[in-house]
Automatic annotation (TrEMBL), chain A:
Spans through the membrane: 21-40, 75-95, 107-128, 148-171, 261-288
Residue span(s) of domain ABC transmembrane type-1: 69-285
Name of this protein: Glutamate transport system permease protein
InterPro entries xref list: AA_ABC_transptr_permease_3TM (IPR010065), ArtM/GltK/GlnP/TcyL/YhdX-like (IPR043429), MetI-like (IPR000515), MetI-like_sf (IPR035906)
Top-level taxonomic group: Bacteria
Entry keywords, A to Z: Cell membrane, Membrane, Transmembrane, Transmembrane helix, Transport
Any one biological process term the GO annotation gives: amino acid transport
Origin organism lineage: Bacteria, Bacillati, Actinomycetota, Actinomycetes, Kitasatosporales
GO molecular function, one term: transmembrane transporter activity
Organism of this sequence: Streptomyces netropsis
GO cellular component, one term: ATP-binding cassette (ABC) transporter complex
Intracellular or extracellular location(s): Cell membrane
UniProtKB/TrEMBL annotation, chain B:
Annotated source species: Streptomyces netropsis
Keywords, sorted A to Z: Amino-acid transport, Cell membrane, Membrane, Transmembrane, Transmembrane helix, Transport
Residues annotated as domain ABC transmembrane type-1: 15-208
Cellular component aspect of the GO annotation: ATP-binding cassette (ABC) transporter complex
Keyword Isomerase: no
InterPro entries, per database record: AA_ABC_transptr_permease_3TM, ArtM/GltK/GlnP/TcyL/YhdX-like, MetI-like, MetI-like_sf
Gene3D superfamilies assigned to the protein according to its UniProt record, in alphabetical order: MetI-like
Record localization: Cell membrane
Principal localisation: membrane
Gene Ontology biological process terms, A to Z: amino acid transport
Name of the protein: Glutamate transport system permease protein
A GO MF term: transmembrane transporter activity
Membrane topology: Multi-pass membrane protein
Length: 314, 215
């Protein structure tokens, strides 16, 4: 939106321009004052002394932060895979013709969507069967699968990880199911009718005709929900899963300096990493949505070569 | 059942905590969200940049990170007198305000351009056009999405329990530590949240019905 093109105000005249300039200056000064105040206060609190930041030059510390980031990505990757699987499963269930499938799927989706994720994760974390189950699987992996089994058990057999992953997958899977269902309802009727006319069975129609188109049209929302999934992995902090934020907290707790523990420096390092990851994903979602809109514009259906030159990936 | 009856007082305190947290954060989120929206559409470029940047950063920050930053950062900035409850309200309200802003901004797009044009031809200033003509109509158009935002806010408020505020998640934590069967505790806490969420969605269905813009 440019200042001349808004419908909310006229193109400013001489007086308006002067007023806008004054407001601009005031806004910039205000922001600069706030940022300056924050920096001064942090400096006064000794947050910018070398002792506070020295730890970050150690290789061991850098590795711990990296491992924290990898643990976040591990939980994220598992959660995305399981939530998408569950999403497809529940969406298929809700679209089913059979009440036996439709009602439980609907009940599950509605329940898990309404639950605070943290409450679920904490409950899972405290459930005895999850721990014994994970321990049993780990024992099996170690004893029967040799080297690979030991690696799997070392890296993935943690009840905290699975409490987090299962909780996130249940919640985000239900949301993905709703997104997919909305997408499936938006698929033109003619598509299903044509598929039936070709003699396809209901299951075939759903899996090969309706869902692929639903996924395609809903891709921006699906990726948007994946951003939420990434943000949700930070809840592992509460149940002491060693993701990025928790790794940072441990790091700060174990580094005593004359000015106290370096929580703020850790936050200034870990925060941008987290925000950067989320920002990258949501930029991707926005790009997908933008691309989808361009493709759906009727004028672009029959593209001229010039259009291809401008946007080859479309 | 005895889990609930034995700890009725605990549950009551937790429920009241969650309700208070949600209510105050809602007020803050709506107010701050409106301010951010005005920033983002106003004729002053730096304010537009500030609004857009703030919303982008807030929307892409995990709430846990924000909680961690606010509870540690604000006391260090000289606001040391704030209670954990106030800090939690600031965090939740600030976080949700970014999403309220996004909703309101798309609401502005649904308002007929003729409305703003008519206001401007009557000689109204930007402030008048926005606050008296456009935003009230945009607000009415975004009642359903704001309703679902507030439901999300209610669920997010559980995180405050991890940062020293007493609410329903704290009840779950306390009772789990006391050795009650976790599934039973979970179901009772879940029921409390379900009741709250149903109440909110009921109120918003009513609001939607009453405030719908007739076109």
């Amino acid at each position: 939106m440019t200042s001349g093109g808004s419908i909310l105000f006229e193109a400013p005249g001489p007086r308006g321009r002067r007023r806008n300039r004054i407001c601009s200056v005031l806004a910039v000064v205000g922001i600069a004052a706030v940022v300056g105040y924050v920096i001064v206060r942090l400096h006064d609190a000794g947050q910018f002394t070398w002792a506070m930041w020295e730890a970050f030059t150690y290789q061991g510390v850098q590795r711990r932060i990296l491992i924290g980031a990898l643990d976040t990505l591990k939980a994220f990757a598992l959660a995305v895979v399981f939530s998408l699987l569950l999403g497809v499963l529940l969406a298929t269930g809700r679209l089913s013709r059979h009440r036996v499938l439709r009602w439980p799927a609907t009940a599950l989706v509605e329940f898990f969507r309404a639950m605070p994720l943290l409450i679920m994760i904490f409950a899972l974390y405290n459930m005895g069967w999850l721990r014994s189950w994970v321990a049993a699987v780990a024992r099996f992996l170690r004893e029967h699968l040799g080297q690979a089994g030991v690696w799997l058990a070392d890296n993935f057999a943690s009840p905290t990880l699975w409490a987090l992953v299962i909780g996130i997958a249940l919640y985000n899977g239900s949301v993905q199911a709703e997104i997919l269902r909305a997408g499936a309802r938006a698929v033109p009727r003619g598509q299903t009718e044509a598929a039936y006319a070709l003699g396809m069975r209901k299951a075939q129609v759903t899996t090969t005709v309706v869902l692929p188109q639903a996924v395609r049209s809903m891709l921006p929302s699906i990726v948007g929900q994946i951003v939420v999934t990434l943000k949700d992995t930070s809840l592992g902090f509460i149940i002491t899963y060693e993701e990025l934020l928790y790794a940072g907290k441990l790091l700060a707790q174990n580094t005593a300096t004359p000015a106290g523990y370096p929580y703020i420096p850790v936050l200034l390092v870990v925060g941008p990493m987290y925000i950067g990851m989320c920002l990258a994903l949501s930029t991707f979602a926005t790009w997908l949505a933008h691309r989808g809109r361009q493709q759906r514009r009727p004028g672009l259906r029959f593209r001229s070569p010039a259009d291809h030159d401008r946007k080859p990936s479309g | 059942m005895h889990v609930l009856l034995d700890n009725l007082d605990l549950f009551r305190r937790g429920f009241v905590g969650t309700v208070a947290l949600t209510g105050l954060s809602t007020v803050l989120a709506l107010a701050l969200g409106t301010v951010l929206t005005v920033f983002r559409v106003c004729p002053v470029p730096p304010l537009r940049v500030i609004g857009a940047a703030g919303v982008t950063v807030l929307c892409n920050t995990p709430l846990t990170l924000l909680f961690f930053g606010v509870t540690l950062g604000l006391p260090m900035l000289g606001l040391s007198g704030l209670s954990y409850f106030t800090l939690a309200v600031l965090t939740l309200g600030g976080y949700t305000s970014a999403f309220v802003c996004e909703a309101l901004r798309s609401g502005i797009n649904t308002v007929d351009t003729g409305q703003a044009e008519a206001a401007r031809s009557l000689g109204m200033s930007f402030a008048q056009t926005t606050l008296l003509i456009v935003l009230p109509q945009a607000g009415r158009a975004v009642v359903p999405p704001v309703g679902s935002l507030l439901i999300t806010l209610t669920k997010n408020s559980a995180l405050a329990g991890g940062f020293s505020v007493y609410e329903l998640f704290s009840v779950e934590k306390t009772l789990a530590e006391e050795g009650y069967a976790i599934l039973t505790v979970f179901l009772w806490v879940a029921l409390a949240y379900l009741a709250l969420i149903m109440m909110i969605s009921g109120v918003f269905r009513l609001l939607e019905h009453r405030l719908a813009v007739v076109r």
